[in-house]
Amino acid sequence: MALDPSDRRADAIDSLADVRVQTVPGGAERAHSVMAGLQWLCQQANKDDWVLVHDAARPCLPLEALTSLIGRARELGEGVILAEPVADTLKKVAVDGQVTSTVDRQALWRAQTPQLFPLFALHAALSRCLDDGMSVTDEAMAMERAGESVHVLKGPSSNIKVTVEADLAFAELVLRKRGRRNDMMRIGHGYDVHAFGEGDFVMLGGVRIPLRCRVGGALRRGCRAPCAVRCLLGAAGSG
Question: What's the pTM?
């Protein structure tokens, strides 16, 4: 993860203390920060490794989209990015604010992250762009310039980039809703049925209960375990 060395807010993020999270000093622009991360990874990785580049300003990425992206890249053997078709009407506007034309949006997509590419190919492509003084706004742009194939996979509309203050409220809403779904309390019901036989007690959950009969069969000591299993299966929606 590329971080601004002067950003002290990162010290309060517990997940960054995980030993699996490695940080590098970020740069002035996105491309410089990505390059810093790629350089570190190239020292650790194998020549056939791939890299996912994700913008931390997109906190609402669902796991399903990430899984689909990786699967698509494995299927194609080439770079893939999440993207969304442009839905708005696009206008080309002159400096004075006058509309000069309407842009055909049928072939236009808005790029998202993550973007998945072979690690060393991306490192080489981005290095050339930076050496040439080119402004690179995403990794796919560098790969395109290097003549590499880049494919799009439709990403979710909730995978927004938090850019203005209003975006924070939307992101909070998405994450809160997702959290409620993941933290939802689930209830399961379980029961077990056995024939009664002659006796003077039954065992229920390890407790001896005086009764003018007993549970017959091999499970006469109690039915707690089968009931518990049925409860768990019911709560999980699997039984």
Answer: 0.72
Strand pairing partners for 202?
209
List Cβ neighbours of 147 (8 Å cut-off, separation of 6 or more). none
Between vectors from CA 89 to CA 85 and to CA 94, what angle results, nearest 5°? 120
pLDDT digits (tens, 9 = 90+) for 192-213: 676 777 777 777 667 777 877 7
Q: Is residue 41 within 8 Å of residue 113, measured between CB atoms?
A: no
Task: Specify whether the CB–CB gap between 23 and 121 falls below 8 A.
Answer: no
- Is the sign of the CA dihedral 47, 48, 49, 52 positive or negative? positive
Burial classification of residue 218, based on how many CB atoms lie within 10 Å of its CB (0-12 exposed, 13-18 middle, 19 or more buried): exposed
Please, are residues 43 and 120 in contact by the beta-carbon 8 Å criterion?
A: no
Tokens 């009969």 sit on residue: 213
Burial code (b: 16+ CB inside 10 Å, e: under 16) for 20-48 equals eeeebebbeebbebbbbbbeebbeeeeee
